[in-house]
Amino acid sequence: MTRQEFAAIATGRILILDGATGTELIKRGMPSGVSPENWILEHPEAILEVQKNYVAAGSDIIYVPSFGGNRLKLKEFNLADKGLEINRKLAELSRQAAPQGLIFGDLAPTGQFVEPSGDLPFEESVAIYREQAQGLLAGGVDGFVIETMMDVQEARAALLAIRELCDLPVMVTLTFEAGKRTLAGNDPVAALVTLQALGADAFGCNCSSGPESMAEIIAMMKPYAKIPLIAKPNAGLPQFRAGQTVFPMGAEEFGSHAATLVAAGASMIGGCCGSSSAHIAALSATARRLAAPSIGAQITGAVSSARAYRVLNPKEPFTVLGERINPTGKKALQAELRAGKLDLVQTYAEEQEKAGAALLEVNVGLSGIDETKMMREAVLLLARSSTLPLCIDTTKPETAEAALRIYPGRALFNSISAEPERLKKVLPLAAKYGAMLILLPLTEAGIPETLEKRCLAVEQILKAAEPYGYSISDVCVDGLVMTISSDPRAAQLTLDLLSWCSKRGMNTVCGLSNVSFGLPRRDLVNQAFLGMAIGNGLNMAIANPMQTELMDLVRAGDALSGRDPKLQEFCRRYAGSSNAAAPATQELSPNEALLQALLQGNAGGINGILAKALSGGASARELVDHILIPGISEVGARFERKEYFLPQLIMSADVMQAAMAVLQPMLEEKSSDSKGKILLATVKGDVHDIGKNIVAIMLKNYGFEIFDLGKDVSAESILDTAQRENIRLVGLSALMTTTMMEMKTVIELARQRGQQDLQFMVGGAVLDEAFAQSIGAHYAADALSAVKLAQRLLPDSGSTKKCPD
Ligand code: B1M
Questions:
Q1: Taking the model in full, what pTM does it have?
Q2: pLDDT, tens digit (0-9, with 9 covering 90-100), for 446-498
Q3: Distance of CA 676 to CAs 25, 264, 335, 679, 796, Å?
Q4: Distance 688 CA to ligand 1 centre (A)
Q5: Cα 178–184–189 angle (5° rounding)?
Q6: Which residues of the chain carry a pLDDT beneath 50?
Q7: 741 in ligand 1 pocket by Cβ < 6 Å?
Q8: In terms of DSSP H, where are the helices of 167-222?
Q9: Cis bond leading into 389, ω under 30°?
Q10: Ligand 1 in contact with 118 (CB < 6 A)?
């Protein structure tokens, strides 16, 4: 099936998808702990029955049961090298179940977070999905579905993998949590903007919620969706009854929600966990009575980051693209980039975001450095640390490609001119990644001297971009600001071009400061020019948002040009303010700077901050106890309140680790002889080790010999080491309710193995005394309590240093 054929069948009718596979297979005897893909191949009759039932219930598209068929998931069952064959056979089975219907190969999370949120290299993720898609293609699928994704970047990897293999239709669905964001913090509209620009043929949500709250997410996305929207909810919110997960919504009630989902804008509906063919039959019966939603976006021209989006449209508020991440004329940034460092890039990003920039321009072009490598690293860093969408600014196509490929959003690309060579090189790659474009009305002959020639250049670029799917709403025209010192007509020429574009509904953008080059009081000229340019339709500027006069002018401009409805933003910001100069911002104390760096996840400069704090008289222990531990706890609280998301949690943890690496030697005191051996480990499945490391330092300070096995350590490894090293006390740490029970497993295994004398000390934020007792362990609430407990449990070790009470 071609993408055009898919678009045709998805227009003017409601397509019915299938329902749950996993819960249906469990009903048919699939045990837990097996590879579902392998079990299906060993029990083909089960999946044939499930899928034939869905076809009979009215499903237009059947998902191949290849959900966990990627190399990383299969590896858990020693099946990694059978991926191609397994996926091919699964697709062939689905074809047997639906000989006349459409079967879509199913790609789902690998279980590992991809960079920039996680450690799995992006290209490795692409390769994993490519391999799976190849198997499914060999099995004859009609298209693909990428589903249950929790990180837009992983969905991008899968989509790119398929796009680079074939031109079949691809549907993508993400799983949104109760706060209407994915686990990685992706916003639904931002994810839609990113993935439809990258070439998804339909987009939406599956799993996690019941139909009602899914309808709310569909309604949020609808105005921005150029493609059909998908809703595949669970049969209600899962409930835990008698140790089992139950999905409470019956088929009839589920079916009645088709109307809610379609009214919200979904034109492809089905079921996820807990739904059966009865649910799909009910959904299909209701859908038959409903008119299909129209396909098409009311709001176009949006760019996105992983967590936010911004509509670029002359009717929207003025957009300032922060210009500071550009080494031209900035010695400090040049020095950092040459040294391979990006601390200033992160600082400039934070400052500009705070000052009101809506996008961040990123330019790292500098002689003598590997621009492509540096750009990729800068983009990865900014994708993790900033919510603002990026504008990639480079003249090199290979640098542009590296940036656009890794960026987990829809970027703006600066820039594309009417030079045929550049058009040929840059247009296909910008289109491949779905970037919005800044058009520069330059031709082979240079900068056109008349308005007519500049307009012609804009039209030439638009014409060349059209076959790649670009329309006026996907571009911004650069006003080409030249200096009035050398040509008094320069400003007027730009103003005329802005006016010409504005009449055609085009976005326009200018770099501001060129106009005043060589003049005194450039600020006056720049401000007057900005005012005139806004009057001629300018709606975007590449500028320094730290200049308060400029930002004030921009906001006043929005108020005057009707881009600030009811003047709400202007009044919110300026009511009660006078035109007196704002008080200078106070410099932060080293302790405040340390806390801020931790909360913002900014590891750059952490050594300097710590050095200042220590030379100012703070002790390493005070910094750990009074700044770092409360700070990281605040990060956890923000994560819980859904103000922070996983990437921010990871960045703050990195700062904590960096700070601890500096402070650790100062926390450790030399002790001459060992006071007893203690083994420490964070249990299997848990990677939190900051607290355990602090406990280790304290125990070392009090003379104990520590065998630290690290994090995510198996029970066997802990017990083998204890046996081999003749250790009598084992300290276990766990930070999650899901991993604390692993402590019980370790202790039970020790007893089974006959390690009866082994004592256990446990700690971690989710534990308490009662839990410790219930599993036969001793509890320590913090590092100092751990020392006291160790001294009590290993009395003959002779730890002489007295522990303060
Ligand atoms: Co995560 N995380 N995290 N995390 N993380 C928590 C624990 C969480 C409470 C955040 C939240 O939701 N508010 C939550 C658990 C919820 C729950 O189960 N109740 C959580 C989650 C959900 C997750 C993930 C699942 C997120 C995701 O992927 N969706 C994921 C899990 C990955 C995994 O383990 N499989 C995850 C990942 C991470 C990071 C990797 C990003 C990072 C860890 C980096 C690292 O440790 N190297 C991280 C962090 C930093 C946190 C929080 C913010 C901070 C933990 C910390 O370092 N605290 C945390 C929220 C919080 O606790 N407020 C959170 C400071 C540390 C000094 O305290 O470890 O308690 P603590 O140690 C204390 C005492 O407890 C005691 O002494 C220490 C010093 O006083 N103690 C012992 C600890 N171990 C002891 C052992 C002893 C004795 C005392 O004897 C042996």
A1: 0.79
A2: 999 999 999 999 999 999 999 999 999 999 999 999 999 888 899 999 999 99
A3: 53, 66, 50, 10, 8
A4: 5
A5: 70
A6: 581-585, 798-800
A7: no
A8: 188-198, 211-221
A9: no
A10: no
